[in-house]
Design brief:
- The protein is of the alpha+beta class.
- The chain has one domain.
- The protein is about 45% helix and about 25% strand.
- It has three helices and three strands.
- The protein has helices spanning about 1-20, 60-70, 75-85; strands spanning about 20-30, 35-40, 55-60.
- The protein has a three-stranded antiparallel beta sheet.
Length: about 90
């Protein structure tokens, strides 16, 4: 499970940084709910920025994550979800 979490983190963080000017600040897994919780923050935040604490939480099912990690890429519908949800964090 730890390896899957690590690989998922890398996939999502790379996409968020290169396409959305965000990064994955937290990634947690709930075995009881079979859900990953992701917290995203802006990459352009500075210590003096009024947006330095802006963040957005999203969720992904364990099954979704397993499939994306197996193929080594984010699913198109997951990318679309990220684009829509994280637009509120963009400058």
């Amino acid at each position: 499970m730890a390896e899957q979490k690590k690989r998922f983190f890398v996939l999502v963080d790379q996409y968020a940084r290169s396409h959305l000017r965000c990064f994955v600040a937290e990634l947690d897994y709930s075995p009881e709910e079979l859900v990953y919780t992701l917290c995203f923050r802006r990459t352009d935040g500075t210590r003096d920025s009024p947006h330095r604490y802006d963040c957005k939480y999203l969720w992904a099912s364990a099954e979704e994550v397993r499939t994306m990690v197996e193929v080594g890429t984010l699913a198109a519908d997951f990318e679309k979800h990220l684009n829509e949800e994280l637009s509120s964090l963009r400058p």
